[in-house]
Design a protein that fits this description.
Length: 358
């Protein structure tokens, strides 16, 4: 970051941005990566790239962050929500086909807690019905499904580097493009609808307004902050995975005794230790647990509210109940998980939870 401040290149698409792209393309093996100001912005770019028209329908899980839906809604799409699995907050792929109509254009699988949706089945459905797949991989950096990285299955995917993520730079994101037919237009949309990127590469004599677009590239300071995290990624991941496994091992007795559920890593998915969550049997039980932890100076937080019954969308939803999305909204709680959590702090958290149930 000091190097950026001492250089004359503060705006976007400078050497640090290019190194971030290279990290995704060379180290993580994605076809094309474009740094964005957020995962939300990357999803918005994807929605523009697939040329969504008003009235088109997009299938999105109800248990997710509003950006997974907003990005498509902004283009006039109708959001068709789907429920989660009983054993995992990810979209229940067995429900998707019944939601497809002649207006359906895309499916947006969200890899909750960085764990993989059933991508084999989702890609099979998408191919059969000629639909785009945009993976919301906000939380999924380094996870793989059947040996292939999450974010590499759909036409495009969006990663988040918000400060709450495993790799964080305050606010930032990455659009990954797997379908190369989007490469050129993506650069233009990201550069306010101009071909400035091609101009800087010396490919055209002047740049001009070519298409719709917006400002979808962050400043170099953000890229430099992010690159430092990428360079340290294996240490960060090693630490997070150790913390996650330690929670699992020590809290397992509470699942065995039927007091609560621990996270279940879906078949064929690795675990990037993004979130360690518990699923309590009821809303009341979760409230008591959160309060008990708070009284002991432990901050444990719930997560998404189901979007199909949100104040904004409830009047537009078709009324189908989503019992699992509501259950995760009411019963899921996240435990502290960050690289500076010490072993004694973690022991204290575990003991406080065990005491609560005893
Ligand atoms: C599943 C999911 N998608 C998208 C986002 C938005 O990410 P960002 O804050 O980088 O825009 C989040 C944020 O937490 C998220 O959890």
């Amino acid at each position: 970051m000091r190097q950026v401040l001492e250089s004359s290149k503060l705006s976007g698409n400078g050497p640090f941005t290019l190194k971030c792209h290279q990290f995704f393309e060379k180290e993580l093996n994605f076809q094309k990566a474009l740094l964005t100001p957020s995962c939300t912005a990357a999803l918005e770019m994807a929605a523009i790239l697939i040329n969504l028209q008003p009235g088109d329908e997009v299938i999105v899980p109800s248990y997710t962050f509003p950006s997974s839906a907003n990005a498509f809604l902004l283009r006039g799409a109708k959001i068709v929500f789907a429920d989660s699995h009983p054993y995992h907050p990810n979209i229940d792929e067995s429900l998707i086909e019944s939601l497809i109509t002649s207006r359906t254009r895309a499916i947006v699988p969200v890899h909750y807690a960085g764990m993989a949706c059933n991508m084999d089945e989702i890609m099979r459905i998408a191919q059969k019905h000629n639909l785009f797949v945009i993976e919301d991989a906000a939380q999924a950096i380094t996870t793989s499904y059947k040996g292939k990285p999450l974010g590499s299955f759909g036409d495009m995917s969006a990663f988040s580097f918000h400060e709450t993520k495993n790799i964080g730079a305050g606010e930032a994101g990455m659009l990954v493009i797997n379908n190369a037919s989007f490469n050129l237009r993506a650069e233009i949309i990201r550069e306010k609808g101009t071909n400035r990127s091609a101009f800087y590469r010396g490919e055209v004599a002047k740049y001009n307004w070519q298409d719709v677009g917006s400002s979808f590239l962050p400043a170099e300071l953000v890229a430099a902050c992010l690159l430092a995290q990428f360079e340290n990624m294996s240490n960060i991941q090693e630490k997070r995975i150790a913390i996650w496994n330690y929670y699992y091992k020590n809290l397992l007795p509470l699942q065995t005794s039927g007091h609560l559920l621990l996270p279940s890593v879906p078949e064929d998915s690795t675990n990037n230790a993004h979130i360690f969550y518990l699923v309590c049997p009821s809303y009341e039980d979760r409230t008591k647990l959160i309060n008990h932890l708070r009284q002991n100076q432990i901050e444990a937080v719930f997560h998404y509210q189901a979007l199909h019954c949100s104040p904004f969308y409830i009047s537009q939803h078709d009324g189908r109940p989503m019992p699992q999305a509501n259950r995760y909204a009411d019963c899921l709680v996240r435990l502290p998980l960050h690289t500076s959590l010490t072993e004694s702090e973690q022991n204290f958290i575990i003991q406080t939870i065990l005491d609560f149930y005893h």
